[in-house]
Design goal:
The chain is an all-alpha fold. Helix content is 82%, strand content 0%. It is built from 6 helices and no strands.
């Protein structure tokens, strides 16, 4: 009898915890995803402030990469909402993009900036051109990831009758940008 009770309790616990991700409200689900995005964005906005200290830049880039990994893992654990993983997958793709630009593009840009400190004017212009090219490439790539994320979030909101505060994330980004410029 006790053995059956333990087995029943164990199975019940497994089913309960397995279904926990379905217990979130649509607002909570949306907020979990957006909060992960803000965590990564905050660290990415911290990177330019470290430009004069290559060691700190590298540490900050590594923190942003680690946060992207953590956020991706958290969203994978979160799963889709009621079987639909469109919004979750769009966020994961965006976070993978963030990770990629930290790993490659930001590192290259900051390496080039450090090179400029020791180069003559004509050489520096080539470096500036390369930095601008990288920046433009990031913006072009990011546009499609942002659009995909925004569309998935909008569809999610419409499906579950959520009113999105479209300014909310933008305000958080502006606050982060303002804090970093002080």
């Amino acid at each position: 009898m006790i053995k059956q009770a333990i087995i029943s309790f164990g199975l019940g616990s497994i089913f309960y915890f397995a279904s926990c991700k379905e217990k979130l409200t649509p607002v909570e689900y949306n907020d979990k995803i957006v909060n992960e995005q803000v965590k990564i964005a905050k660290l990415m906005f911290d990177i330019p402030a470290t430009i004069n200290d290559p060691e700190t830049t590298e540490i900050t880039i590594n923190k942003a990469i680690a946060q992207a990994d953590s956020s991706i893992e958290n969203l994978e654990k979160l799963g889709g909402y009621k079987g639909d993983n469109t919004f979750q997958q769009a966020a994961i793709n965006l976070f993978k993009f963030y990770k990629e630009i930290c790993q490659k593009d930001f590192r290259e840009m900051f390496s080039l900036i450090n090179q400029m400190k020791t180069q003559t004017e004509p050489d520096s212009q080539a470096v500036v051109n390369r930095i601008q090219e990288i920046s433009q490439n990031i913006a072009e790539k990011e546009k499609s990831f942002d659009e995909s994320f925004a569309n998935a979030q909008k569809s999610f909101a419409e499906k579950y009758q959520l009113k999105l505060d479209e300014q909310s994330f933008q305000k958080k980004l502006e606050e982060l940008t303002h804090k970093n410029s002080e």
